Amino acid sequence: MTPPPSGPVCAGASQYASFPTFTSYVRARGPVLLRAARSLTANPSDAEDLLQTALAKTFMAWERIEDHRALDGYVRRALLNTRTSQWRKRKVDEFACEELPEPVGLPEPDPAERQVLHDAMWRAVLKLPERQRQMVVLRYYEDLSEAQTAEVLGVSVGTVKSAVSRALGKLREDPELTPVR
Q1: Are 167 and 181 in contact (CB under 8 A)?
Q2: Is residue 134 helix, strand or coil?
């Protein structure tokens, strides 16, 4: 705790007359009070801040405290009240609700099953005639549009549409892919 300014700087300067008594109390009881503050918070830094605030409140009421033998109880009550005020002022980021805000999705497939599907799909694509295979790879694996695929292969857009349609029909009928669906 920093010492108060010297001289009558503010209207409450008469309170500083009892500063040496308050200082000796804080020096003597500080570690015990800090342990009490730590029991109220999870973070040691927050406990120090809490104790500092409670001691500031105690200092402001120092002259009004009649029984200085009960100072520990007064400071502990100030710690408790300060912590309760902080708790009440906290920002609540979570709200209870009946429905979960997260969308319920399908569970992720097993990576091994995904690899089996990936391998089966490539084997089926490799069975397609070369021209259809080129169009399927450009359209669905390279994510080109029909016009871009037609331009790369030097064919018309209609040819790409019909060849891809026939290729997808063959893939749908492939017996290796049937159990996977």
Answers
A1: no
A2: helix
User: Are the beta carbons of 47 and 35 closer than 8 angstroms?
Assistant: no
CA distances (Å), origin 97, targets 4, 91, 100, 101, 102: 50, 17, 7, 9, 12
Q: In whole angstroms, what is the distance from residue 154 CA to residue 148 CA?
A: 10
How many CB atoms within 10 Å of residue 92? 5
- Degrees to nearest 5, angle at CA 80 with 76 and 84: 170
Q: Is 167 exposed, middle or buried (0-12, 13-18, 19+ CB in 10 A)?
A: buried
Cβ(139)–Cβ(160) below 8 Å: yes
| C-beta of residue 180 within 8 angstroms of C-beta of residue 120 | yes
Neighbours of 30 (CB within 10 A): 13
pTM of the model: 0.42
Encode pLDDT of 49-58 as tens digits.
Answer: 999 999 999 9
Contact 164, 132 (CB under 8 A): yes
The two three-digit tokens of residue 130, written as one number: 């070369």
In terms of Cβ atoms closer than 10 Å to its own Cβ (0-12, 13-18, 19+), residue 78 is: buried
Distance between CA atoms of residues 45 and 75, nearest Å: 18
The neighbour count for residue 22, using CB atoms within 10 Å, is: 19
pLDDT band at 16 (very low <50, low <70, confident <90, very high): low
